[in-house]
Amino acid sequence: MQVAERQRSATRGAAVWASRACIFTVDVEDWFHILDLPSAPGIEQWDQLPSRLEGNFLRLLDLLEEAGSVSTCFFLGWVAHRFPHLVREAARRGHEVASHGYAHRLAYRMSPLEFYRDALKARQVIEDAAGCPVYGYRAAGFSLTSRTPWLHEKLVEAGYLYDSSVFPARRNHGGLTGAKREPGWVRTPAGEIAEFPVTVVPLLGARLCLFGGGYLRLAPLGLIARMARRVLREGRPVIFYLHPREIDPEQPRLPMPVARRIRCYVNIGGTAHKVATLLRQFPCGSFLAWMEDAGWTKAEVGCASK
Ligand SMILES: [Zn+2]
User: Fold this and answer.
1) Can you give the CATH number for the domain in which 263 is found?
2) Band of the pLDDT at 299, cuts 50, 70, 90?
3) Tally of domains in the chain
4) Is the Cβ–Cβ distance between 126 and 84 less than 8 Å?
5) Dist. CA 127–CA 138, nearest whole Å
6) From the CA of 110, how far away is ligand 1's center (Å)?
7) 173: domain range?
8) What distance in Å separates the CA atoms of residue 155 and residue 149, rounded to the nearest whole number?
């Protein structure tokens, strides 16, 4: 489909998706997949560590189900290789299965070729586990930056239809402060790809994301809800993101500086309840469902269950 046609379709679909314009996303990884931390174990050690993923992930799927919502689950390829039944379970329950790369490496620390190979391997492993195509990608740590101008092109070459790696605000790993805030198509020499930037709002003189990470866990529920309604009024989807470890107060803690520890673990005990409350006010769907509603794609969600 040409860009103009896609844009016309998107406009036509806008009224349809207004009622399900919130998207819930889960980066499916374990408690030890913390980026850029000297004490974090390397990939050669991951197999030997006690995993807490299954319990946390299934609890999160239950929570979504109780709220009548579905999500996009960005699986690490390594997770899909080790726990293929969790990929199948997500697809069986109607969630969209997508890719978080294979080895959880920051995009800007890889060459374009290394990035392409990691993204391709992840897609293949996750598709094998799910038994259905994978369309979406999210880089570890939202690490699409000015140092990775090739990232979208490599994703098209690796077979992806959309990306959600742009963090249009300041951030430790990555961050593109001046980036567009709305979803749209990106043209690359290899073809087009849709980009869904993480949702940010202007607050206290800066762009902030209240819908994932430390801010979601720390900010008052009323403020998050008010800002979500404002984003919806502006015609943008609200994109929430969460890791299964963020609802697990019992997880082992990695040694790290105090500021980082606060960011990683603040209010983990209250997050499941907070997310459940938000989901009651803001029912969520997946990226692929949003794209279908907007007329951006005819791809189907939850194909493994069919
Ligand atoms: Zn991650």
Assistant:
1) 3.20.20.370
2) confident
3) 1
4) no
5) 16
6) 16
7) 3-305
8) 12
- Calculate how far, in angstroms, residue 77's C-alpha sits from the geometric centre of ligand 1: 11
Distance 112 CA to ligand 1 centre (A): 19
- Give 94-136 pLDDT, tens digit per residue: 999 999 999 999 999 999 999 999 999 999 999 999 999 999 9
Distance CA 104, CA 43 (A): 9
Interval between CA 190 and ligand 1 midpoint (Å): 26
176: CA distance to ligand 1 center in Å?
18
How remote is the CA of residue 242 from the centroid of ligand 1, in Å? 10
Give burial (CB, 10 Å; 0-12/13-18/19+) of 257: exposed
d(CA 132, CA 95): 12
Q: What's the whole-model pTM score?
A: 0.91
- The CA 106 to ligand 1 mean position distance, Å, reads 9
Tokens of 285: 């769907």
